[in-house]
Amino acid sequence: MHRRLALFLAACALAVSVPVGALELAGVKxxxxxxxxxxxxxxxxxxxxxxxxxxxxTAALYMTEKKTTTAEVLALPGAKRVSLVILRDLxxxxxxxxxxxxxxKNAEVAERAKLVNAMLSFGQMFATIxxxxxxxxxxxxxLPGTGVVSQYNGKKIGDTIQDPNFYNALLRIWLGASPxxxxxxxxxxxxxxx
Length: 194
Description:
The protein contains seven helices and eleven strands. It has helices spanning 2-16, 70-75, 92-106, 109-114, 116-126, 164-175, 182-188; strands at 24-25, 28-29, 33-36, 39-51, 54-63, 80-86, 90-91, 131-132, 137-143, 147-152, 155-161. The longest helix has 15 residues, at 2-16.
């Protein structure tokens, strides 16, 4: 009897296992790879950003190899991508402000002083998008030799920012000591997929 139950439970577990390439969050399919420049990157982790009880966006982190700590992610050379899929209509001003607040919470005053021009340039990018709609996609890439490149629904927006320290400041919005969402931080570090 116990053996049959064990076999049944094992069969159920196999039936519900989800391959890495088939990850879906809030109706958004998360690809297991992303092409950034000439590099094929692997999904490090993905999750949902909540504000109170509302789903704001899905976030996925792609890198050349999987890392499980913030320090390892920041130190890893090569291309990187953060991909956000918007889950509810919101003003680009609101999202831009959240980005800036996230940088301020996770960077020391001296570091922020060095990033002022990059922050201004990045903030101006949001002025080119009046409103972000459910389903819109924002990607922010680090391309070695090029810089920080942002795309909105597949089209480049804003200026390229050549400071690698700025990209790490952006990553700390989600992975820093005061992340935008603790559960999302763990998900992006590959600790969970929900």
